[in-house]
Design a protein that fits this description.
Layout: E1 3-8, H1 11-22, E2 29-35, E3 49-55, H2 59-73, E4 79-84, E5 89-94, H3 98-102, H4 107-121, E6 130-134, H5 137-159, E7 163-164, H6 170-180, E8 186-191, E9 198-203
Parallel strand pairs: 5-6
Antiparallel strand pairs: 1-3, 2-3, 4-5, 7-9, 8-9
Helix pairs in contact: 2-4, 5-6
GO molecular function: RNA binding
Pfam families: Jag_N, KH_KhpA-B, R3H
Protein name: RNA-binding protein KhpB
């Protein structure tokens, strides 16, 4: 992390000098005031302000580095390519042993996704949503979830009893909600705390 100490007649002047030196905006840095400026008497004994300014770590780059370190330690090194849109950033993973990172029903991939989101958001002032994908698993999983949603909705409508699905990450819960949004016989909700939050499918209230 690049870090500098700067003095100025005031804290504001020191911050401006630091931003110019780092070629950064105020939003991209963290400022720590080490010493406030002090006015002297009749022009004598004054003391400048001293600040410490550091560049904030980029949350996406930090998340990529974290994921590469974890997968290396797992013995499954990956290449990561990024796709960004308004709602999320998708990490596309590729490698020789990628199936190990997907795991049974995507459980390993979901766990890595949860941890990667924690790391990224620990360094971001705005909430970031990161999706991990590998070998188009997310699309195949979405289709599987749609079938699960339809089958479960039919069972709920027939029995009149609600069903709680297994815990899922937010993108998978969204796929369930979207698949059933036009079904007037049932209603869906997400309940519980991450990473154990799950979708509940129950009969619609009259």
């Amino acid at each position: 992390m690049k870090q500098i100490q700067v003095t100025g007649k005031t804290v504001e002047e020191a911050v401006s000098a630091a931003l110019a030196e780092l070629q950064a905006s105020k939003e991209e840095v963290e400022v720590k005031v080490l010493e406030e400026s002090k006015k002297g008497f009749l022009g004598f004994g004054g003391k400048p302000a001293l600040i410490e300014v550091s560049i904030k770590p980029d949350p996406i780059k930090t998340a990529v580095a974290f994921l590469q370190e974890v997968t290396d330690k797992m013995g499954v090194p990956v290449t990561i390519s990024l796709k960004e849109n308004r709602e999320e950033t998708i990490f596309e993973l590729s490698g020789e042993k990628i199936a190990i990172l997907i795991g049974k029903r995507g459980q390993t991939l979901n766990s890595l996704q949860y941890l990667t989101n924690l790391v990224a958001n620990n360094h971001s002032s705005n909430y970031l949503r990161i999706i991990l994908d590998a070998e188009n698993y997310r699309e195949r999983r979405r289709e599987s979830l749609q079938r699960l949603a339809m089958h479960t909705a039919q069972r709920v409508a027939a029995t009149g009893k609600g069903v709680a699905l297994d815990p899922m990450p937010s993108n998978e819960r969204k796929a369930i909600h979207m698949a059933l949004r036009n079904n007037k016989k049932i209603e869906t909700s997400s309940e519980g705390a991450e990473p154990f939050r799950k979708v509940i499918i129950r009969p619609a209230k009259n």
